[in-house]
Amino acid sequence: MTDILWGIGSFLSLDEAYDLILTIVSTVDFHVKPILQSTSATTLVSTHILRAALRLLIALADKLPSELPENVRRETMPALFVLAIVLPNTVEEEDEKDSTAANVETIRGLTVDEWEASKLAKTLWDAYEGLKDMEEVRRTLKGLITDTETRVSPISILQSLSSLHLPPLSVLPPPSEFHHLLITTTPADPVDPTLAMIEPLIPFSPSTSKTKQALTHINFDSSGYSPYARATRALLHALISDRHIARMNLWALQHVLTLALLASEAMQVPNADNPVFKKGFVSRDELRAITRDVQKVAAFLLSSAGGEKTWHRDLIGSLSAKGKGKEVKLDEVGTFVRKMIEDVKETGSVRDSLVLSTVLQHILPATTKEDADGWVELARELEVTGEEILIARMSFSFTDAYCSAPNLACPRPRHHRIRTRTSPT
Q1: What is the pTM assigned to this prediction?
Q2: I need a labelling partner for 141 at 20 to 30 A (CA). Which of 121, 160, 195, 258 fits?
Q3: Which of 262, 277, 301 is the last residue of a domain?
Q4: Long-range Cβ contacts of 143-148 (<8 Å, 24+ apart)
Q5: Domain presence at residue 208
């Protein structure tokens, strides 16, 4: 077959040879998809056909047109990149997690034939010198970030971006999509009401039937991650790997803190249905690693809180009724904290209040006694307006963070367990 294609001038017209090459490309496109999907089982015949087609294209790499048809640019080439670059990264990542894996045959069902097909795809990707539509590759990778049927991990996708010279956030959902995933796939209640035994903010009443029903429709990947967990785990990897990216994307802190909270709940109540981690699939070591990395990110991003003398005063003023109508200039951290407090006031979400608690515990130790009095006054003001979740959260956080500091006279706010509050739907 290769000899025939090499002799294009003797055996085939240029158009016939071009059509034959495209037929081979479509064969690759058809047989590469099952390898990249965790829900599909590749057959020995399928991988043999794929390897043969890849070898033909490698031999003809210099005869492939410089501009490929649109369907090849949009589907085949991006799939080829995933098979060549991303899938091996996923295998290495899983190999590190599974110390008992002796060879590639034992890792997530990747056979020797599939591994060889991946190496052939890498050879073809490097050999083809024509136009590669990197925007289509980027779009494909972005779609895979939240795809629960794919075999590749979100972190392996980020690790592959260096060869494309793309920044990590270019393949992650924008803030608006992250927010949509958060409010549509994670309920406002904790995973189990028994967590109220260790967290005073959590009401003892069970979650609503509507929340439980929503959980049953969540899809998980083969590692036990939901779409939101896949995207947020990749986001956490980007933040922990590059401080500049973390500093420039403070909005991301709410999402990684939510992921850490859900990871903590998965460890505390492993038998409960978790909205982002499939029960029994994600190891405790992996969950601990998530919470540990999130703690590092939070400490770094919130370290500037209280740097200016008027930082706490300005933030409190922007939230209190007395400060209404007054122009207050807040830095990025102050704006972030104010938005989180206002969101909790609006939604009454227990989960959001628990995330806010972590934020407050980072910023309150930097308060002076005068600032502390201001926070207590704000908490009392919010209590008068009926914001029970927020006042309780601020009370507990204030006591945990501020009152533990040495040699400080602590004006302790009044603690109380919040009453059950129906979250808006």
Answers
A1: 0.84
A2: 258
A3: 301
A4: 144/82, 144/86, 145/171, 145/172, 145/173, 145/230, 145/231, 145/234, 146/173, 146/181, 146/227, 146/228, 146/230, 146/231, 147/221, 147/227, 147/230, 148/219, 148/220, 148/221, 148/225, 148/226, 148/227, 148/230
A5: yes
